[in-house]
């Protein structure tokens, strides 16, 4: 305990555990001098003083309206960093703007947000492989490059069974050591559903298409009414636009993929009737007679086009390669694609079977519509996206034409979106045992916040809160007849990402100290109200190795302090151990 | 839900306005208005058209401005936070459930009433100049506000320090109001506070007309001050937004003095009878 911390104690508020007088607390700590930054440090300064100054960094995150938890984590980190002698500022951006800054422009120091994660640990290949450093999208936004980690990620990709489990463990341990990003916690997903009008809510995960298919309506119910707290789907329904897509639930209803997965990561045939493995080749049979919403047939040529297009959206005689900002890891597994006939094709994959089948999870695009999108790139001054962004990514894709179980009817930007059942969808055929669209219409109303969304279900103007509700409202949902609070498995996680392209974030020692300034357990209790689990590794529980299991504290980067309060001396010592120094005014100095 | 909130608002206003008309305006002025309203409307016609024009542009711009803002605007949330830090948390000291209820009510109902009543009151004055000045000042507030909203992309304190503000945030105690506010504004439009600038505009005019409406003046001042404080108390605006709002109000009031009667309104209204009189707005 030191003076700085003691000074903060009386200011701490009750339930939310927030601290009030940040500046007052800082003023006090600034007066204390850490003894360790002594003469030796200052002598060395004589030689290198010029380009070494106080570390000043910006935390890019989302406003409370978009994501209350992210900004709360950022508030806590800001305080921890400031007490450790770092100059912190905020860059607060809407969901779209956050994604553009972090995923497209790589214009950030540290970001705090909600990562879509994955049911299978292979999403880490996409998230961290160094080959993707210069690409836009969820593929390595951190600019992380480590050949050993690359190698481990590739190994798990080619293995199956127990061998793969070992390979995944090795990769996860190496990643935990390196902390290219800090996984914070996995929030629980709760939704409020109307059980009077529909039954079968628990059959499919409500963040995937299956959640909205196969629901049994009671008599006379013809519309499934969702209330959504994210207005992005009313503005853009492009399955490739990483800035507008969260988990892509709605685009999954509009676009089919060859296979579909569920909350356990199990993969089952969807638009493909079946497939067989022959060596490294997947022999895929499409269902006969499927059509897109505009009546054009879905053929093996469309599938071939989709895989080629997602791998490179620029046109053929262009030297640039422009991969799509989503689905990169899945597409990358496909080495070759051969159309055998109208309904049959072969995919040769450079991966084991487990990862190879995940390549079947991308949306199938109609070639006759998207082919035209490939030839041009966004020019100068034509929008907020960087020059050279392919139009296929920039387009809002309205109206979307897919082959999925629901098709687009209309929308009012920021307000609502209406879909209707696609009567020609294969799930509606007799003999197809896959969940089908059971009601004729699907409406999605935008509600400004979680609480109004819950009220909409309580007042029977909506059947489901399609986005998971804010964890601070989970405890206050009224139990009553005809309404249920439904918990679904969760694999998304909150994270702190480093832009490792910039000093000092490229230094794993530095990143590890930052990771140790985050009290994950405390955040879970006070920001997530207990409706989350703290994590040391960002995979689903079945993949967590014993070495990285949460045991009351982070097994890899334990918190430097207690009860959310950083131990200033310990934090400074940790920075100094990592090779950084403090000046005589207790500011952390780095070469930037 | 939006309809519900609007109905409630309309109901409250429809009670407050007639009561205030009786209390603040008086029988004699109303009687005179009944005989003169046509000619007064004619004189004020162009100004009314300008205000409606500005409001319509504002309405349309709410849809398109965010994208434009994204391209040309400056992201200043972080800068505002850096500059004033946790200043608005000083209102913590007066925080009780009652004050929260008071300021929430003021923010939604008090503000709406404050804007509507003077329009009616000043219309009952024989000299339409003050009426025209008020409408001109409103139009200027909205027009200048819109330009600043496009240039400055910033979130209010409630979006940057939700933890500290939790108990008293408007949308935590009255989540349904967010339907209303998100209908009229986006959450990055905080600089300046139009709640403050329009309220301060009304209060300034109330001072100018204190001899005509002596009872209205203190009420308007108390309401306007409450609105300005409510925006900070509820965590919607930074103190900087409120300061900027006050300055905007001063500018709009003094501009309205210069603009109104600058042109012969009668001539202009004849000349531009079937067009929107843009020249007044382009000064």
Q: What is the total tally of β strands of chain A? A: 26
| CATH architecture level-2 label of the largest domain in chain A | 3-Layer(aba) Sandwich
The radius of gyration over CA of chain B amounts to 19 Å
- Which of globular, elongated, flat, extended, rod-shaped describes the shape of chain A? globular
Question: What class, by secondary structure content of chain A?
Answer: alpha+beta
Uncertain spans of chain A: 1-38
CATH class type of the largest domain in chain A: Alpha Beta
Tell me the series of helices and strands of chain B, N- to C-terminal.
HHEHHHEHHHHHHHH
Q: Percent of residues of chain B in beta strands?
A: under 5%
The largest inter-chain interface, given as chain pair and residues per side, is: A-B, 38 and 33 residues
Gyration radius over CA of chain A? 25 Å
What overall geometry of chain B do the principal axes of the alpha carbons give? Answer: globular
> How is the biggest beta sheet of chain A arranged?
6 strands, mixed
Mean pLDDT score of chain A, rounded? Answer: 88
End-to-end CA span of chain B: 41 Å
Helix segment tally of chain A: 19
The oligomeric status of these chains comes to: heterodimer
Give an overview in words.
The complex is a heterodimer of chains A (592) and B (283). With 592 residues, chain A is an alpha+beta fold. Chain A contains 19 helices and 26 strands. The radius of gyration of chain A is 25 Å and the shape is globular. Chain A starts with a helix and ends with a strand. Chain B is mainly α and 283 residues long. Chain B has one domain (2-36, 48-281). Helices cover 74% and strands 1% of the residues of chain B. Chain B is built from 13 helices and 2 strands. Chain B has helices at 2-25, 27-72, 77-84, 97-123, 129-151, 157-160, 162-165, 170-173, 177-184, 194-208, 216-233, 239-259, 265-271; strands at 74-75, 152-153. Chain B has a two-stranded parallel sheet with strand order 1-2. In chain B, α5 crosses α12. Chain B is globular and about 55 Å long. Mean pLDDT of chain B is 87; it is low at 279-283. The A-B interface holds A 13, 16-23, 58, 63-65, 68, 71-72, 75, 89-94, 97, 383-384, 413-414, 447-449, 451-452, 455-456, 459, 461, 527 and B 1, 63, 67, 70-71, 75, 77-79, 81-82, 85-86, 89, 92, 155, 158-164, 166, 171-172, 175-176, 178-179, 182, 187-188.
